[in-house]
Design a protein that fits this description.
With about 300 residues, this protein is α/β, with parallel strands linked by helices. The chain is built from ten helices and ten strands. β7 and β8 form a beta hairpin.
Amino acid sequence: MTHQRTPTPTTSPFDHRMTAFGADDDFLATALPFLAEGLAATDEPPPVAIVAPDKLSLLHDALGSDAANVGLIPHTDWYTGSAANAVAQGAGYLAAHAGPGGRVHLLMEPVWNGRAGRSPRETAEWIRYEALANLLFAPFATTALCAYDTRTAGPAIVGAARRAHPDTGAYEDPARIAAELDAVPLPPPPADAEPLARPDAEVVRQRARARGLAVADAELFAESVTAAAAAVGSVTATLLWGEAPSCVCELRSARRVDDPLAGFVPPPTGELEPAQGLWFARQVCAYVDVRDEDAGTTVRLQYA
């Protein structure tokens, strides 16, 4: 499965902004004008703030009577899983609630003191999401302001996020950022990794159960492995290791994927085609790492 690399759009209706702040007053100084801009926009539904619960209280008090016209969503209800889950959440929200062409103002604060900030690996996945959002949401006339609280997001996170937002002066090609993240080698499989004859759903399910996954989790993990295998094709080796909940399966394919958006583009319908198997895998697994190499591609799936 070889794809053309998606070029960075030179013009896009998607307005992807960023603000960094270290105090509540600074947050309000940026958030309130942004929400007012959304309230004044024509052909748009009410703006939405997706931020930490304490900031929702600040906004509610500061907005006064306008609070009834602004959607207030705790960010822990929005950012509930992986970066790919956030893509699905955003795409689903635009489809269900946005105005013509995806018009809506969204004030968005990642959960940096939770899942997304708990390790360098998590941070890298969320920076990938911020970068690829410029491509994934390029067709939509959505205005998004990503809010970074420096009290929970450190200087390294904020600096990396600036590279993913066109309004910062530090913006870089999303494909370049993804390539940098993918240039970090994956840790080698452990010596006791179990080779499987093929990525067969029943075999993966049985071996995952033996490693402690519950029945439902083993089923989902097996489905994600077989979906990813169908998407990349030409699987030459399959390895399984780890104990529940962090079961890992690695697929090695003779083909290259060669697409930074592989598995991130929402399918047009609820019925997945085989080529969209990486989307399913990314929705199910905590991590799906794709590494192109001279001899093909390695896809590593970690359930949790």
